[in-house]
Design brief:
Largest sheet: 3 strands, antiparallel
Structural class: alpha+beta
CATH class: Alpha Beta
CATH architecture: 2-Layer Sandwich
Strand content: 15-25%
Number of helices: 2
Radius of gyration: 15 Å
Distance between the termini: 52 Å
Order of helices and strands: EEEEHHE
Number of strands: 5
CATH topology: Double Stranded RNA Binding Domain
Shape: globular
Number of domains: 1
Length: 87
């Protein structure tokens, strides 16, 4: 018997990472208002995005609504502008 692995769908989602005065970052998406998460660091905030997106996706599925047009499956090769902070 062979074991099958379910492959997750990959989506492109525009994100805004906003530093908070008390520290940490809030992550939102102008294209997906239901996506909201945060973290004490950039890495932690970004690590929480997958769960926040899954919750938003579940909301749309349960409501029987399509995702906003700006949210779509990613192509096989993903182009990405990645910001790197150097001390």
């Amino acid at each position: 018997m062979s074991k099958q692995t379910k492959v997750s769908q990959v989506y492109t989602v525009p994100l805004l990472l906003t530093p908070q005065p008390e520290g940490g970052y809030t992550v939102t998406s102008p294209a997906l208002p239901e996506l909201l998460t945060e973290g004490d660091s950039l890495a932690e905030a970004l690590a929480h995005v997958q769960d926040a997106f899954a919750a938003a996706l579940e909301f749309y599925e349960e409501a029987g609504e399509p995702l906003p047009a700006a949210i779509h499956p990613a192509p096989a090769t993903i182009a990405l502008d990645y910001v790197v902070a150097v001390p």
